[in-house]
Structures are given as C-alpha cells and as structure tokens.
Amino acid sequence: MGIDVGGTHTDAVLIEDLRIKKKAKVITNERDLLDSLWRVTDDLLREENPERLERVVLSTTISTNAIVQGKTDRVGMILVSGPGLSPSLLRINEDCHFIPGYVNHRGMEIAGIDRDNVSRIGERFQRDGIDHCGIVGKFSIRNPQQEIEIRETIATHVRHVSLGHRMAGRLNFPRRIATTFLNEAIREIYTNFVKQVLDLMHLRNVSVPIYILKADGGTIDIAQSGEFPVQTILSGPAASIMGILSMVESRDDAIALDIGGTTTDIAVFAGGVPLLEAVGVTIFGHKTLVRGLRIRSIGVGGDSRVRCEDGRIVIGPEREGPAAAFGGPFPTPTDAMIVLGLTSIGERERAKGALLPLSRHMQCSVLEAAKTIFEQTCEKIASACLDEMEAIVNRPVYTIHEILEDRRLEPKILYVVGGSARPMAFRLGEMLGCPVYIPEHAEVANAIGAALARTTAEMTILADTEQGTLTIGEEGDRIVIPPQFTREDAIGIAKEKLRERAIKMGAKEEDLEIEVTEDQEFNMVRGFYTTGKNIRVRAQVKPGLIASLRT
Amino acid sequence: MLKKERKTGLIFFPAFDWAISPTHPEREERLLYTQDQVFEEGLLDFDSIIEFKPGLATVGDVNRVHICVPDTRSVITESHLVSAGGAITAAEKVMKREVDNAFALVRPPGHHAMLVVRGARGFCNVNIEAIMVEYIRKHYGPRRVAIVDTDCHHGDGTQDIYWNDPNTLCISIHQDGRTLYPGTGFHREFGGPNALGATINIPLPPRTSDEGFLYILDHVILPILDEFKPDLVINSAGQDNHYSDPITDMCFTAQGYALLNDRLSPHIAVLEGGYSIEKALPYVNVGIILAMAGLDYSNVREPDYDPLTIRQSDEISRYVEKEAAEIYTLWEKRGLMREKLIGNVEYVRRKKPVYYDTDGISEQQEETVRVCTDCGGLVTIASAADTGNRIFAVIIPGQSCPACRAKGEEIYTETGKDKYNYVYLQDRERDIFLVK
User: Is the dihedral of CA A273, A279, A284, A285 positive or negative?
Assistant: First the structure.
C-alpha cells in the first residue's frame, strides 16, 4: 500500500502482483493529517485482508508543513565555527551560541572546547525553557569528537539533541547548521505523528513494516525515522517522480513533469535515472544537506492567476483559488484550456466570462486570448525545462577527464502527470521536440511511487593514511588504519558500512543496489616525500524501485 | 563590517587528475584542502557567488599570445587548455556583465610562460592571464589592461609578453630576485622602448608581512593605477607570499590577501602559485572569494595565526617605504627616460638567455623592437635552443601602425627557411598566425 498525503489530496493505492488493484483519493484535512489517512485507508482497505499486505509506504507533508507554517519548536544552537565565515553570516536563530574550538579540514583538533562554557549555555537553555538543542561544528564530519563532548556536557539540561555530523556526510557548515536546526525543530511534531500513524495502523490490523518516504525518493523504516525527521521534507514531489519512474521503462534521457494547480515540478532522468541535488534540497529558504531528488518547481500551474499588464499576458506565479470554471475568482490557464476545448471539465461559460475582460485588453477574441494564454503557459514550462537541462549540463566538474567527456543531455521522451497533463502534454512535446507519454495511472503516480520506492542511504569515507585514521562521516566513527591501507580497502569498508546502515534503515538485502559515486585517491606530499594517501570514497544505494509496475 | 555585496563569478578547477609529477608541488593534491574549505564554508551557496564551469581554450587562443616551438600541441596538455579556458570563462562572465568580478581558481598556473615557449618553466607552460587578455581584446575590442601580479615569484613571463605593449601595465610585487627564482624583477626592468613604465617591478625583502604589502599597495600600486586608468584590472593571484609557504620566505597572511583584494578590487583574479596547500591556500582562497564578493572576511585567519611571530622588522618597514618612494619617482619620470635611454635609434635589441627549468632546456633569444611613437612597435625574435631548433618570429602588435605592419609583413616574407627550422608570423591585430 502506498499513501501520499499531499497539500490538496491524499492518494492511496493498493498494488498486488505489481498491478494496481485499487485506488483511493480524499481531500486532505490540513488540520488533521491523521483524519485524511484514516479516511483514505478506509476506502482502500474495505473488503481487504490487511494481513495480506507486505509493506506500507507513506509519503507525508507533515515535516514540510511544519517548517513552512512555522509549527516548530524553539531550538538552542551551539556552534563551533572557528575562523572563516563571520558568525553574523551563520546565525540561524536568536538562540545561537558560538563557542571557541576548532577542527580543521583534515579533522585535526586545533583548539579545544571549554566544557564550563557549554554547561553555562545548557543552564541558560534550561532557564529559558529550551528543550531542543542542535550542536554543530565546522568539519565535524571529519572529526565529531567536539560535538559529542558538547552533547555529554549538555545532555542533562535539554530533552533532545541533534548532532550536525549525523545529518549527512557532505561538507557545508552553514547547511549543516540549517539541517540540524530543522531536524530538531520538527522532531516533536514528527515523532507525535509517527506514534499516531503506528496506532492507526495497529487499529487497521496492519502489522507489516511501515516505511516513510524521504526527499531522495527512498524509504526509511518509520520506527527508525524519528532521529532524522528532516530527511522526510519535500518527499511529496519525490513521490510523483518515483511514480513516473515505476510506470515507464525507458533507459534514455527523459524529462518528467508534474503539472499541478499552483506549480509545475520538473525532473530530468539521465539515462533513465532521476538526478539528485548535488549538495542537498532547499526548503523555505533553508539550504540543507538533505539528500533529495533534483526537482525544479516553477510557479506555473493549471490554477495560476492570469493577468494582463501593459497589454501583455502574465501567468502566475500566484494561485488565488481554483479556476474560474470552478467558481474561482480569476482567469487561469485551466479556463483557457476549457475555452479551447482541450478539456471538458468545469463550466465553460464561466471560463469564457473570466477571459472576456482579458480579451478586451488584448483587443482580440476570447478564443484568441485563450490560445495566447495556453501557448504562453506551455512556453513557460518548456523554457524552464530547457533551462534546467542547461543547468545540469553546466554543473561544475573538477577533473580534466570530465571536462573532455562533456556529456550532453538529449531527452528522448517527455513524461507528464498532474491535473493538466492531458490538455498540455501534446503541445509541450512539440515545443521540446520529443514524444510524450502520460502514464496510465498518472493521477495517483505519487502514491504508486511511494508504494514501490526502495530504502536508500549514503556513506562517506575519508581515509588519511598519514594520520592513520578513517572517518565515516554519517556515523561519526573514526577508526585506526595501517599505512598500507588502499583505495580498494576503503571501497570495501564503504560498501559494507553502507549495507549495514541500509539494512538498519529497513532495506531488504535483495534491493541493495549499491554503487560507488565518488572514488578519489591523492598522494600526500610533505617536503619532497610522499607521507601518505588521502582517499575519499562515497557510496550509495541508488534511488530506485523495488520493482516496476506491470503494464 | 558592512560592505556592498558584489556578484562574483568563481571558476573552480582543481584538476584532480593532473600533476607535473607525483611528488611535484604542482600535483593533484594542491587544491584538495582549498576545495574542502570552500565547500565547508558554504561559499557557493551565497547568492552573490556563482560558480561556472571552465570552458576549453583553443590552440588559436594560445597562438594569439605565444610562439610555441615547434608547435602548440607539443608544449601543452589538455590541462593547460582547461586552466586557460577557466581564465577566459572568468573574463567572459565579467565582460558580459553576468557578474561584477570573477576569480579563476584554476591550475596549472602560467605567469612564468614567456612569449616564446619551448617547454615548462617555473611550473608554467602557457600564460593563462595573457591568453585571457588577448581573448578579451579579440572579442571585446582593445582595452587598457593592468595586470597586478601578487605571486611571490617575479611574473617574468607576463612581463616578457607585454614588454613592448604600452596598453598593458604589468606590475609585479615579489620577493627580491636575489633571494628567489626566477632571479629577475628589479626596478631597472621597466618596459621596452615603446612601453617604458608599462612594466613596474617591486621587489620586497624576505619576511615582509601584511604591513609592507599593504603599504606598497596604497603608496605605489593604487596611485599608478589611478594614473594609468585601465579599463580592466587583473590580479595574478599567486598565494606563495604566505608565511607558511614551503618554497618562499615572506610573511603575508590570509587576512592580508583579503585586504589586498578588497582594496585593489580587480575585475578578474587568476590563481598562480602557492604551495602551502594545507596551511595557507584554504584560508587565503576563502579570504579572496569573500573580499571579491564584498562579504565580511574579518573572521578569516589561519588556525595557527600569530601576528607577533610574523611581524616584519622596523628595518624592513623603512626599506619598504624607501622602495615605494623610489619606484613611484621612477614611474613619474617615465616620459623623460625615453629620450635619455633610447635617443634616436631606429631599433632596440636585447639578448636574453631563457632556461626552462622544468624541462631542462636552454635557449638564447635576441629580440628586436622597432622604435615607434604610433604603436607598440614591430617585434622580431630570433631564438636558438640546445634542443637544436632555430626559429624566427615576427610579431605585429595590436593596434599596429601602418609602418610597423608593412615592415613586419616584409620581414616575414623575406625570411627564408635556410637559417631557421621554423619562421612564425603572429599578427595580434588581425589575429593571424602563420608558420613556415
């Protein structure tokens, strides 16, 4: 069973033998997501035996909404920033405390921390009623000891602590701060939600593993997710993209569009594989280290408000309500498509009525106005697709080999889902010069994507044979290695640790498609002698599906 | 510290798969820790810092600047086309006003590469700043350009290429040539007969620290720039003046580099040398990037920074002040020097030995310049090297006068292959490169 609790609708599908057995859709109750879950499973599981379920995967807006709507807890932040960016550029909230201490780029402790100072901050948090604490050090993924020390000192003063180095294995201190802050800020609301979901599933007699979808389109066992709720932000758009992936077979470059009411999400598949953000996703202005699918969202959708400014048509980015044909206050691209006869939903006369004032401004007929609006909507989306492909191709690379390789993207097909998929797909395909495919169950692609997503994880290894240490970024482990340690050894450890991590997160052995995504080795030379090797390995369980839908 | 934010382009290309040799300072590891620091500080997330992928320079771009012997492909690798391409990308972004300034944080470097190239000297094969400048002139029209070379080693390659160009001001500030490679860069090196004062050398004594560098900047470099009125200021941003550099002996700091870039405000900065890869480069580069973007760099310093141990002596301070006064006086008298030094001769010749230390090649060059008041003057170079190749090159300058052009074309036509293995014509104005 796959469930996607979206902003407007909550969708659910039941999949049997990789075929859609049942679909359900209810309006999301924003104030009570559990109510939406209850109703949608009511529809779906009626006359079904819950014991026959193998897995349940849930994609939810709970974390995203908590951040966007500011339903977050106050978080005390303790930052070990050292020299570099000025603290004024790092202050994420009013409760930020910068303390002395420093770990350098090789993970060597250059300046220690003052535990008394930390204790005083802890007391202050307690006095101010701050229960949640985020601790982040610069380069802490290279050596987490200072973060751990601070936690030990402060543990008695607060209820829960998140450590920066556990968030992700990538370098980026400001993002590590933001990620840790968000993780702690939404923890309470998230863990409550998880508890209620588990209760609900219990009441429904569901006793199989329950997973939650992450921003990278992968899953995590819901019971394991409580420490890292931030991983579940922006999982909604990821669900749709994974859904499209499950319904297509191509291994070519492709563009996937989800045309919604307010926005259109654009994803690019390179050789059939969805691309990930290079560093992490951005939510509500916060740049994070959360691994996520690379999805560009533009403010153009079926319900975008259409205006006329100085005789020119402007579409979006705001949505002021549904289309005029459905009683909305302003004309929209949907109204234009209704007038043009591209779709037969809504009340045509209302749509026409809404376009009339625009057509007067433009000094043309209503039909011509509709045509212009439709064309411009499609053009906006098509040009955003081209920009996105351009941006992907122009991503910086750091080796001569990659510069010379200079791979181009040549989309062979355009996948379209979402409310306006059918009326717009053909024209978009013409503009982008590729054939169009609208998957059969496009309206519940998100729930299908959730249902079939596999557990994903990433592992970052840095071996420094000069120091004789190997650091596992995400786990905070530091182990001793011998001088003759090799790149092959590092890859072996990365794969093994990644396997363990993924299994712990709920992966099944047969779904572990592990790939090494980064693999570099540098001679370290001091004076005129080689003193060691600096080996960097990153491995991941690829975002993907446990299986594709049968068609 | 409140500053006006600027949009800065960053072309970061560490060439993680290229080295001169496995243990050479110019090796894969060089920008590894810089990358770590730049990534960890999150610099690429600032709206005012935009990263661009380097383009590839072409052989044509190289031939606009150099006479490569026997030909361009034989003296370069792909890595040089990428690093020159990175500098060109930086320039493109500035010239198209996509950004206010740009930093090409690329390797391999180029400022020791002279006009004639037979191999690598001082870790450099081709001059990436010069290739960039001539690219700009070709695509955006003639420009007055000032190149301020803040590498610890004298920028002798850049000086050689622009020796006769009155429209390119080359200022090099470096450790005194009596104590460091390449052993040149003294006051008396002041530019060719038609470009006197367009080459300025500022040798500084070993152990000069921030104070001395900034004194020179404020009292020599900035006033000269004010008078030269360049359209473009380029910083040839070597980072080996740093107190921790293993192959030099200066006491400059990351904070000093940031201050220098803030005050100099170059349109384009291009990385040159700098081999303290762990203790200096990560911090220096973060400082330069923040300064160029107009962001607060006041907290940038090395973890082991101790101002007392690296502070220059009073003796050095006095020396630097005297040096500044002398150089500025020299600059002011550049007009008078022309009459005194050149008089009424028609041609000026200089002989110079060139040693390609990386490749172990010795070369003897004779450069002849036509004295001209209307352009930079026709240049011819005859050169022989211990590799056996004798060559002759005719260089017609950009914005050349009809007389220099006619003479140059005539010499190229008349010079036969009997005496030389190769005869080259480099027409910078018309962007023509011929070999026979």
Answer: negative
Q: Are residues A471 and A426 in the same domain?
A: no
**Is the residue at A242 inside a domain?**
no
Are residues A290 and A318 located together in one domain of the fold?
Answer: yes
- pLDDT at site B3: 57
Sequential pLDDT tens for chain B (436 residues):
445 679 999 999 999 999 988 888 899 999 999 999 999 999 999 999 999 999 999 999 999 999 999 999 999 999 999 999 999 999 999 999 999 999 999 999 999 999 999 999 999 999 999 999 999 999 998 889 999 999 999 999 999 999 999 999 999 999 999 999 999 999 999 999 999 999 999 999 999 999 999 999 999 999 999 999 999 999 999 999 999 999 999 999 999 999 999 999 999 999 999 999 999 999 999 999 999 999 999 999 999 999 999 999 999 999 999 999 999 999 999 988 887 888 789 999 999 999 999 889 999 999 999 999 899 999 999 999 998 889 999 999 999 999 999 999 999 999 988 899 999 999 999 999 999 9
**Distance of residue B40 Cα from the nearest chain A Cα, in angstroms:** 4
Size of interface A-B (CB pairs under 8 A): 119
For residue B142, say if its preceding peptide bond is cis, omega within 30 degrees of 0.
no
Kindly tell me if the per-residue pLDDT of A58 is higher than 80: yes
Give the CATH number of the domain where residue A160 resides: 3.40.50
Provide ipTM, 2 decimals.
0.93
pLDDT in tens, A387-396: 999 999 888 8
Q: What is the pLDDT of residue B344?
A: 83
Q: Which tens digits make up the pLDDT trace of B128-150? A: 999 999 999 999 988 899 999 99
Q: Is the model's pLDDT at A406 over the cut of 80?
A: no
| Together in a domain, A308 and A391 | yes
| C-beta of residue B241 within 8 angstroms of C-beta of residue B282 | no
Asked if A110's CB is within 8 angstroms of B299's CB, the reply is no
Query: Does the beta-carbon distance from A86 to B1 stay under 8 Å?
Result: yes
Gap from B291 CA to chain A (nearest CA, Å): 11
Q: Nearest-CA neighbor of A58 among A183, A276, A221?
A: A221
Residues A93 and A22 in one domain: no
Residues B42, B43, B48, B54, Cα dihedral to 10°: -120
CA nearest A174 in B: which residue? B42
Q: Per the structure, how many domains does chain A have? A: 4
The number of CA neighbours under 13 Å toward the Cβ of A9 is: 15
Instruction: Say how far apart CA B38 and CA B29 lie, in whole Å.
Output: 15
Q: Is residue A333 domain-resident?
A: yes
**Which one of A406, A436, A466 terminates a domain?**
A436
Contact B278 A534 (CB under 8 A): no
Task: Give pLDDT, residue B1.
Answer: 45
Nearest-angstrom CA–CA distance, A99 and A114: 8
A376 belongs to a structural domain = yes
Residues 6+ apart with CB under 8 A from A408: A393
Within an 8 Å CB–CB cutoff, is residue B296 touching chain A? Answer: yes
User: A110 touching B, CB under 8 A?
Assistant: yes
CATH of the domain at A32: 3.30.420.40
Q: What is the DSSP string of B130-164?
A: HHHHHHHHHHH----EEEEE-SSS--HHHHHHTTT
Return the pLDDT at B2.
Answer: 46
**CA-to-CA distance for A210 and A200, rounded, in angstroms?**
12
Asked if the C-beta of B278 comes within 8 angstroms of chain A's C-beta atoms, the answer is yes
Whether A354 and A474 map to the same domain: the answer is no
Q: Is A245 domain-assigned?
A: no
Who contacts A69 (Cβ-Cβ below 8 Å, separation ≥6)?
none
B112 is a catalytic site residue? yes
Alpha carbon of A157: minimum distance to chain B alpha carbons (Å)? 30
Q: From B21, which residue of chain A is nearest by alpha-carbon distance?
A: A523
Q: Which domains are seen in chain B, by residue range?
A: 8-334 (3.40.800.20), 344-435 (no CATH)
Contacts of A175 in chain B (CB under 8 A): 42, 45
Of the candidates B29, B42, B78, the beta carbon closest to that of A175 is on B42
Q: Which domain holds residue A324?
A: 252-436
Q: Are residues A268 and A406 in the same domain?
A: yes
